[in-house]
Amino acid sequence: MGQSPSRPAPVDPVIVDEGRARAETDLLSNGGELGLLGSNEAYQQVWGRDSMICSLGLLACKEGDGAAIHRRSLQTLRAHQSALGKIPHNVGMPNVLDPALVALGGKLLAGNGSTSETSAIADTTHAGCVDSNLWFIIGHYTDFVHNNDLDFLRQSWPALQQALLWLRYQDSNECGLLEVHEAMDWADLFANRYNVLFDNVLYFAVWRCMGIMARALGEPEAWYLEQAQDVRRKVNALLWVGPESPRDWAWIDEVRQEWLYPLRRVDTELVERPFYLPYMAFRDYADRFDTLANLLAILFGVADEVRANKILDYIHGCGLNEPFPVRALYPPIQPGERDWREYYRVRNLNQPNHYHNGGAWPFIGGFYVAALVQTRRLEEAEKQLQKLALMNHTGKKREWEFNEWFHGLSGRPMGYGGQSWSLALYIFAHESVQQGRVPYFNAAQGWED
After folding, report:
1. Which residue, among 201, 225, 206, 205, has the nearest Cα to 215 in the 3D structure?
2. Distance (Å, rounded) from C-alpha 215 to C-alpha 2?
3. What is the DSSP letter of 283?
4. Burial category of 67 from C-beta neighbours within 10 Å (exposed 0-12, middle 13-18, buried 19 and up)
5. What is the distance between the alpha carbons of residues 24 and 430, in angstroms, rounded to a whole number?
6. Each residue of 380-435: pLDDT tens digit?
7. Could you give all domains of the chain from N- to C-terminal order, each with its CATH number?
8. pTM higher than 0.90, yes or no?
9. How far apart are CA 391 and CA 429, in angstroms?
10. Contacts of 174 (CB under 8 A, 6+ apart)
11. Chain segment 207-223, per-residue pLDDT in tens
12. Continuous H helices in 89-196
């Protein structure tokens, strides 16, 4: 018998607004010379994914200059873009003590024997992560929507085109979707691979962002928006199992015979699922619920209304929003299962109900609240925002710790405090509930077909 999650006490609505104020103060304090750092306890670098995700809350801060911090993050990442267009996993100063960098001896080290502490360097620990490029483009989109700065966008456009070209080359079989190596996105100690839901939902958003920004610059936009539609069609064709995605077998047989084997497998073995599968690999697939990827499918519009409601009903039915919103994976992978890897044991991170393997993350909780707003479940969004406030209020050392991640069943914090994306996504969730719509990803701001 598994342990049942404990339920948090009812939340005073006043705590929701107090959390917003504290989140803004702490998030702005994580800004530095290079941009937004990962947290005030660890992750003392500008991360390609984290800093860009954080723009969703950073640009909504009422005091301070969150826009300037985000702009510095963009400039830092762009300055370290590779010749082929790759955006770095993270950029930081060498020889800065960082408890999160255990595998590196506790700090980034300058290359070629240099001990200079005056020049930022790109970390190569997870150098092949594809979502740095994906979020880099989305981060420019949020900057443009917030600032309407055409000069900066025009200056950045060559780097954005290069970043997109690098992504296109990650489509190794030219099927229109990204083929991703194992552990090469935010779940960088996890076995998702090949046509991964998370990365391809972001890929859809990237094409749409590029189309909107191209339109603003007076560049042709149609190609970008057509590619977005193509990615959405293929994500729904390949990774959704059920009557909402009837198979066009003639098209698949003519254009994508590679898909015939795995699709016939899932149709026979699964019949239907109320969520997108986390990945489809060569003649293989995974049958589990990737919470963040499914929420982003709702937020960006990959999922239609029927699919979105099935996903949210499934989260509620499985209790993945208990005791706090929301657990990252269901069910967790157990030792001995096909997708278990011995590297899950590294630093005790990915044991069942830990970290990527079913741990609960406040930043995913922020996306959960936003997805509820996007589907007009406004009353439920308000309830979950209150629970998210209590989650961020709970700490190992102090109140309002905005911890990185929590045990999926006990609801107790297990990560580092002062985490930027825990702070930023709380602000984003609060702003979404307050506005009654999701900033950046709504029709009024051009986020439509």
Report:
1. 225
2. 52
3. T
4. middle
5. 11
6. 999 999 999 999 999 999 999 999 999 999 999 999 999 999 999 999 999 999 99
7. 129-445 (1.50.10.10)
8. yes
9. 13
10. none
11. 999 999 999 999 999 99
12. 131-147, 150-168
